[in-house]
Amino acid sequence: MKKNYFGFAWLFMLLFVSQISFSQAALEESEFGTLIIDYLKYNKEELNLETADIEDIVVRDSYQDDAGVNYIYLNQTYQGIDIFNAISTVVVKDNKVFYYANRFMNDIANKINTNTASQSPESAIYALANHFELGMVNGLVQLEKTGNTYVYSKAGISQRDINVELVYAPTNDGLTLAWDVVVFANDNSHWYSVRIDATNNDIITINDFLLTCTFEKDHTHLDQEEEMNFYNQMISPSSVLVDGASYNVFALPAESPNHGPRQLVVNPASPVASPFGWHDENGVPGPEHTTTRGNNVFAQEDRDGQVFTPGYQPDGTSSLTFDFPLDLNQPPAGYEDVAITNLFYLNNMMHDIWYHHGFDERAGNFQANNYGNQGLQRDEVVADAQDGSGLNNATFGTPPDGQNPVMTMFLWSPVGPLNDPLEILNGTATGSYSGVQASFGNPLSTTPIATQLALATDLAADVLDACDPITNTAFLNGKIAIIRRGECEFGVKVLAAQNAGAVAVIMVNNVPDDPIIMGPGAVGASVTIPSIMVNQADGEAIIASLANNANTINATLVNNGPFQVDGDFDNGIIAHEYGHGISNRTTGGPSAANCLFNAEQMGEGWSDWFGLMITMYETDTADDARGIGTFAISQPTTGGGIRPRRYSPDFAINELTYGVTNNPSISQPHGIGSVWATALWDLTWAYIDKYGFDPDLFNGDGGNNKIMELVVQALKMQPCSPGFIDGRDALLAADTLLTGGVDQCTIWEVFAARGLGYNATQGDADIRTDQTEDFSMPPSDDPSLNNCSDLLSVDEFAIGNFNVYPNPTQTELTISTTENLGKASITLIDVNGRVVLSQESSLLGSITINTANLKTGIYILNIKSDTVNYNEKIIKN
């Protein structure tokens, strides 16, 4: 691995200088303290709060945007100790409380277990290290203390200094005094934020800043191939030269190499968001770096899998020209310059695009230098390309403002077996063999491993599965070990062979099925040698040849392709990961890093939506269903991607509604998030239908630009630990703030169609099984709907003009109207998104639908005409 140590001492200080990233002030001492206190007192009964509940409130974060709107994030405390995640949002406009999103607990005085910590913060660190088996705690030293917040040395268990804060942690029994301990594990797999009981060191709750984007593969669908260059339309015509840098990348809106060709883009930095270019840090004209490092992101290779070790960075020289050759028909290490450049480009584009839509320094964005603006700095993204700590995934870790987030982009396994990686050169098994590479250890190289084969024998006679101690370690040294699949983990077997000196492993399947991708298990992360699995017939033939042939058996292992897929070229996944940073920094304020870990949170949904928004072509239509991550998992652009459904406003393609979040078959958080993204994607097309599409992602005025601003605005306004209803209400409030409410009707119609209607309830946002969906619109006399006079709301249907019965049904369903609503399309859709019934009818009088032949289950009834777009869940008994 090539290394670039230039300036690493500066990086070391940047990443490891400990910071207590926010300072709190008593509410009554703040600028809007009196206004907010009066508001809380006046509304305390409606908010179900006691006087004592609002007597000890502190301002955790506050800032004012360019429009003069103030955002204040309040933390409820008890006797000077913060209640964990009891963070409410107050939006003040024109010296009035414009919006309040409540997350305060009620009757807190009677829920406190104690106000005295009998366990020290040091003992809590030891408890965490023991619980997660992080290793021995060595040299633990207190570095800082401010109020109830402490900073300790890394102590051999953390890659960053350890932050500890005394808090009250909500539990089923009330509020438990606890230590909130933050540790970034040395193996890069977890960035723990853990509440530990301050009386007995029991673990209460666990969060992980390092969000891992698990994948759920699905179907294949419509075509979305585009090879047009829309880059010049994306930036403002008034842009001026920033630093003259050029990058040969898969430029937006291309999602991946499958969606469009590479293009040389010149001077892409926004003069507003990055006024000194992407390679600046000191705010003086002229770049400080000629590599993929700058104010917004530090992109480097990380094949050793250690996030804070210096990695190679391509150099654009003094001309800042990052134009390198690309041949994808080789292992990814051969084109690292291009991969890192693309990662650097996309991170910077995410910074600049969303800066224009409200994610700026004040809101907690990621910059080394804030150029004199509000917010904490020295927190640019550390983005690792071709990361060696995992496969088939990507992660993003977001700490509080002022601390560097970390993005890791992994390689992805190619589809199908390798092209005959194994060749036996002599003996009865001479020939070439296919095999499937493991998901751990180093991949095979295009340079052959040429050596002898050797059976790995262990204490269990005639098994050869290396589940017991290997008995012929000396013989295995320098050879390719042959091991049978058995009862223990693959990582255990391969590590045992590696420890015996084997240079590679051939695993023999023990069943007639095709070879599988071997998983690492508990110890696979320690494996560095390559390994493949061959099928049972081939493997047993090789074993027989070794057992019966008196001569030495020689073989080669080599990577003939297909080669691993580089996630650094999947712009949608990079944007998804960066999106976690946006939603985590904006929800609950920049210093709150734990606000999106509740059961009903929508973080994965926002991230999918961020990726979709920046990869839209001007020629796209609502009919173009979108899959997520199709390039990374080697699907065509028409593939189903990694979510339960492709994103589409068409219920025949994506029928998911709010109620499905109760279903455990929808994963948490990714499946739940995809339901939220489905509603946002529907809303996106409603906005584009109304306002058109503008490819200028910096300064455009199309429907896509408007909803981008709307969503970021809503993220700032919603409370900590939001549920779907909180998210919907924040969008409605954001529309009122930005436009006076001109799109209230549009937002209600879209969300009601997805089960987030007027009477929908989210229950407890920390519980994922208590949601109630509803498809109704607000009452027609609701003043917020004064722009919907030409449309029929579901409330109008409910007064007798429109009725669907019986529900549940057995043999037939009746739709009854008392006035002529015109010709309509009537559709029934099953839970798999299939249209099981479709007909055209005039909505006057009664229409009967035969349901006798339908299977028992749940269906969505959609009735659509020029004046009606109505959805209702139908149960067939």
TrEMBL record:
Supply the alphabetized keyword list: Hydrolase, Metal-binding, Metalloprotease, Protease, Secreted, Signal, Zinc, Zymogen
Say if the entry is tagged with keyword Transcription regulation.
no
Q: Which cofactor does it need?
A: Zn(2+)
Domain PA positions: 465-542
Query: What domain of life does the native source organism fall in?
Result: Bacteria
Signal peptide per UniProt: 1-25
Compartments where located: Secreted
Q: What residues does the Secretion system C-terminal sorting domain cover?
A: 804-875
Main location group = secreted
Entry annotated with the keyword Nucleotide-binding: no
Which InterPro entries would you find in this protein's record? FTP_domain, Fungal_virulence_M36, PA_dom_sf, PA_domain, Peptidase_M36, Peptidase_M4/M1_CTD_sf, Secre_tail
Q: Where is the FTP domain?
A: 56-104
Can you tell me which family this protein belongs to? Belongs to the peptidase M36 family.
Q: Tell me the NCBIfam families matching this sequence.
A: Por_Secre_tail (TIGR04183), T9SSA_dep_M36 (NF038113)
Protein name, per record:
T9SS-dependent M36 family metallopeptidase
| Organism for this UniProt entry | Winogradskyella alexanderae
